[in-house]
Design a protein that fits this description.
Chain lengths: 163, 163
């Protein structure tokens, strides 16, 4: 029986920069289909930014035939209101998962670091370094916020590797 | 010039019970068009519950021609993960506001209590009592979680009274 390929959308959401990576796994090969970031305009209203976020990922899901969304579990930081608003974006991803019949998986920051670098206490730099090792064809140009993108790719890769 | 009527959807979101009230204001009269609650099934997946929440309020917005969504500002309670998930539902309401071109207003718990009872430190019972005074035709039947509903009506009423 031929194994179906799975397409994972890894997202590292934020109201400033949201990194994303789309990873396809067919059998034993894993490849990157798309990656980049979404920058929301701070001058737009909150509801407008939520709407832009929804449309952006709706389009990515359709274009790449995404089958699974992968997220990093978020923990309360210093600012409770920022944390709540992060929930807005995560809620939109859960909604998109429901509307497009996608699986949704969450990984803790430690699980992601462990899976990518072999060490659960690794720093962001190390994750970034490993992602660029694993996918040497990825080229970061100009002012791209590459750590948001490599983080999202790491999250997506965990989804692609799981089960 | 004839004043346009505004239709406010007040929502008190929760993953257990979400109370809602739809209030129409035309000139000096304020009336209740709809009220009740949505109970999400704890056995459903998180994305499914978010999807049900979206569809439920999408339908309410279309049916009543809602022009404005009114919410209570939420503050971090004891459980950070509950607070984050509350953000999911609020995010869905912000998305619906964007998709349907609605205004969205938030009031602090104190503003709501002040507006409804004249006292910012009032209890939930007092808010509930005043709502039933203002709208004596509202009848709560059976196992309805009436305080979630009266809270939502209070939030909606603040929206209808504002500006």
């Amino acid at each position: 029986m031929k194994e179906e390929s799975i397409v994972v959308l890894g997202v590292d959401p934020g109201f400033g920069i949201t990194g994303f990576g789309v990873i396809r796994r067919g059998g034993n090969t894993v490849s990157v289909c798309d990656y980049g970031f979404l920058k929301l305009k701070p001058t737009d209203s909150l509801s407008c930014r939520v709407g832009v976020f929804y449309s952006f990922f709706q389009e990515k899901i359709k274009t790449h035939g995404v089958t699974c969304v992968s997220l990093e579990t978020s923990f309360l930081g210093k600012n409770a209101q920022t944390f709540l608003k992060l929930g807005f974006l995560r809620g939109v991803l859960y909604l998109l998962a429901d509307q497009n019949n996608l699986k949704i998986i969450e990984f803790s920051p430690m699980e992601i670091k462990q899976a990518i670098t072999g060490f659960g206490g690794a720093g962001k730099d190390q994750v970034s370094f490993m992602i660029q090792r694993l996918f040497p064809r990825i080229i970061f140009q100009g002012e791209i916020k590459y750590k948001d993108v490599t983080d999202a790719l790491a999250i997506g890769l965990c989804g692609a590797w799981s089960k």
